[in-house]
Amino acid sequence: MQDINKILDAAEASCSASGARLTDKRKQVLSCLLQSQKAQSAYDLIQGVKENYGATMQPTTMYRILDFLESENLIHKLQLANKYIYCSHISCDHSHEVPQFLICNSCDRVVEIDVNSELIKSLTRTVEQVGYTLVSPQLELDCLCADCAAHAA
Amino acid sequence: MQDINKILDAAEASCSASGARLTDKRKQVLSCLLQSQKAQSAYDLIQGVKENYGATMQPTTMYRILDFLESENLIHKLQLANKYIYCSHISCDHSHEVPQFLICNSCDRVVEIDVNSELIKSLTRTVEQVGYTLVSPQLELDCLCADCAAHAA
DNA sequence: GCAGAAATGATACAGTATATCATTGCTCTG
DNA sequence: CAGAGCAATGATATACTGTATCATTTCTGC
Q1: pTM score, two decimals?
Q2: Of A86, A117, A132, which residue sits at a domain end?
Q3: Which of A80, A130, A143 has the CB atom closest to B79's CB atom?
Q4: Segment A14-57, tens digit of pLDDT
């Protein structure tokens, strides 16, 4: 994990490049996400920005900010858990691959991995065979992290 | 799509085999799911059994029935949409593979496919490399069906 | 029939997400 | 630098998804 301030700078640069603004509130939400390896819900984050920055945000505002951050490829929404996680490639040079998430269903700790491109090709072929179109090949896998697996055993 | 009554019979047989009971209410819910290729939410189904059978069910009851049907492998829960779909292998002879779902994000029409086992092996290897354990390899892909893709174009 | 277990009912509430309309603040142009 | 127009946020209400808890009914096997 790199220094959070560096990532925030990279995020800001990336936003300017696309003509978007990383406002204070948006930065607060992003910071909360960057400070944890765990996926957090919109309401977790409302609580988080309150504790860390004394800022109060309504759900509407939070969801709008989350949508914005997602559209800028700074965070990911995990459908499996209805939670959000920072994108681990904000300050990378190499281009984005399709993300694959391993989500601990006990503690919400998330690992982001690039999907093997062969695998994506194989999935895409299968989808096309039945006449469907793949909108997002993002994969989310229901897992247990090492710690939680140890406790459960 | 086979005849629904035959599938219901197969479902009933499968339940008896595992010492479970496919009660009237459970059968009503399963029937509603079998009558549509589209994934339906718990509340959609509450509406559905009311219209089709005049039966009123509380959310608690519906979720209990859905849990039961899932535990008997008669239906699947789709995390991507928070909706439910019948299992397309209720009256098949061949053993269940890991399911992969193609979900139209516009109309909720679902296609169920067996995942290539090589692909599952590859996923499992990746997961183990980072110390995680795969709980359920069920894959859900965000797609557009042919009809919705045509309308969008 | 009766005891015990399984299934369902009833009520309340927690958590997730969006609709709608109002207000504030930034940016660009003249 | 004023003011128009748009981007961002605020405020209120409400819809949707899911669970906790305790009560009642129904089924099964003895």
Answers
A1: 0.91
A2: A86
A3: A80
A4: 999 989 999 999 999 999 999 999 999 999 999 999 999 999 99
